[in-house]
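Onboarding guide, step 5: your first structure request.
Type a short instruction followed by the sequence, for example:

Predict the 3D structure of this protein.
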Amino acid sequence: MASFLSKILKNSNFLSLANNGLVAVLGFFSFIVLVRSLPTNDFGEWVLFLTTANFIDMLRFGITRTAIVRFLSGASEEEGHQLIGSNYVINLVSSVFIAAVVFLINIFFSDAVSASGFSLFFTWFPILAIINIPFNNAFSVLQAKMRFDQILGLRMLNVGSFMLYLVINYFFIHSGLLVITIVFILTNVLTSIVSSLLNWDGIRYVFKAKKRTSKILLDFGKYTSGTLIGSNLLKSADTFIIGLSPFLGTTGVALYSIPLKLTEIIEIPVRSFAMTAFPGMSKASIENNKAAVREIFYQNAGGLTYLLIPVMIFCFIFAEEFVTILGGPEYTQTATIFRIFCIYGLLLPIDRFIGVALDSVNMPKQNFIKVIYMTSSNIIGDAIVVFGLYYLVSFFSVAALLLWGFQDVSLIAQITNEFTTMTILEMVACVTILFAIVGIMVGYHYLHRELGLHFRKIFTDGFGFFSGFLSKLKGDS
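The system replies with structure tokens like these:
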């Protein structure tokens, strides 16, 4: 029994799941403390800061992250060092360039920046962009090496130290948004120092970078970077567009962020198994073993769909409790948004693994096109809802209240604002389901042409996900 448990704890899938799961738990606790530590407007500004920073990180590291994982998994030791060195140089150059652009925008358009909800981002991101380069490089290299135990250690250090400060701050210090942001940056400094000292980021191989290996990463990365940026936009576009609305603003961002944060419950297992499946699928593709690629795709996409069904049902039933625990009683009204995300969660495994499969069979361009379709449908849908249907919903709300005999103008305005805000946020969440369906249709079309898939096998072969997982454990025992 002890040996069996030991094999489970060393299994890559388990370590990846633990990695994302434990980090997400710490992230949730940090989120819970923050939402109770900051006024609604400040919390909305913090959400915009993190959302925008994460989006820019996709622009910086998306150029090489998927490429380094794919090519490092089958490289010799010397070529591996060259790839890691090229990865570091490319990310350093792109980070310095982006940090400089953000800094200059803040200098020359300071009045516009100060008046927006993005002031925190433009002030602090240039510093954050430079200091977290080693941490992000280490994440990519360790994923390629399947060292999820070391990734777990780094991420626990990063998120755990910040959460520890937030708890102490909540009970004893009571600092505001500025100090919290500074501490957040310092935790990234700590994590990057550890990454470099242990050479997990590959800083010692910088001078081994070659023009050839840099070209390999850039040729593959020109599409995967667009894919990662588009994927990030799928989640962050909602926040950006809501934040740009003159009627919803930072209050709307704060309300929407609670159920959006809870979608990490859905994404934890999907992201974890995708991280472990990608190197194996890439290796099978390089060896021209399409049958193995199909098998991994069917089992992971179908198996995770089955795995998420009871989770989504549970979350759907207890949506009020989840949003109340995370945000407090004032956010209970966002439960319907979370229920809509639960429906989206059932589509997520198939959509995610279609994208992973496209990258693994060296079709990053087609995966990029898939994400363009998804992102476009999301942005267009959100824009129509937020900047068009808002007025329509407001009009009918006022008309209905007048027909029901309401005469107090201030009361009508209050009820209309609250009802319209929640209705629009719920409609924005519905757009999420639309773009997921679009992504599955477009991505499956491209993948089918390459692998000759049968859609029903996602569900029939999906049961092999569970038997295969147990067989691996027994085989290792």
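Each response can be followed by summary notes, for example: The first helix runs from residue 2 to 10.
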